[in-house]
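Tokens as discussed.
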């Protein structure tokens, strides 16, 4: 459902821009879609406010960096099958969020080539999501229904910057081989031969 909502919102934004005479490129659309998907994934499903209740002494924060690593270590040491990795909530959510953020970084690199701007976008996105969670969607709920996790800050930021770096590195490699960013090989340029000039 998160992807459905993100797709509908992206389509609505693109249509709105088209109505006012503006267009958004492919990288911009992918950036908008992946960002909205990440936000929706972090907040959806929304609890029913009429029946939502706060649990006393429930933990809503996790401030230990790389708290997820023991879950990975146990699976590796036990030689766990693929199904165990997929069904482990900590492992699955960490990997999925990282991959989604990599897509965001790849799309972001198609919009801007500035590292500082990319880092600022990544930090704002990840911190904004976590603050929304810890504040109960900015006061919409009397208490948080999701966990504020410092690991999410670290891994999501790293995911965006990894995707950004991969795209930038790939572009630099293509340019070094004489190809433009789009991947098409540039035709070699030759100096005109004086003998070809009309007499």
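Sequence:
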């Amino acid at each position: 459902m998160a992807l459905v909502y993100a797709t509908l919102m992206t389509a609505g934004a693109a249509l709105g821009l088209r109505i006012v005479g503006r267009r958004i490129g492919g990288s911009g659309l992918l950036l908008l879609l992946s960002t909205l998907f990440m936000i929706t994934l972090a907040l959806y499903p929304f609890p029913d406010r009429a029946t939502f209740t706060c649990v006393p002494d429930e933990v809503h924060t996790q401030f230990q960096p790389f708290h997820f690593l023991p879950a990975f270590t146990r699976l590796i040491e036990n030689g766990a099958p693929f199904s165990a990795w997929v069904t482990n909530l900590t492992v699955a959510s960490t990997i999925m969020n990282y991959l989604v953020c990599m897509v965001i970084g790849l799309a972001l690199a198609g919009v801007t080539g500035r590292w500082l701007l990319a880092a600022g976008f990544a930090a704002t996105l990840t911190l904004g999501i976590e603050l929304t969670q810890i504040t109960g969607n900015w006061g919409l709920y009397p208490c948080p229904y999701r966990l504020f996790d410092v690991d999410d800050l670290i891994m999501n930021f790293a995911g965006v910057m990894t995707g950004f770096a991969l795209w930038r590195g790939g572009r630099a490699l293509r340019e070094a081989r004489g190809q433009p960013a789009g991947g098409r090989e540039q035709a070699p340029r030759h100096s005109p031969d004086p003998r070809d000039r009309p007499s």
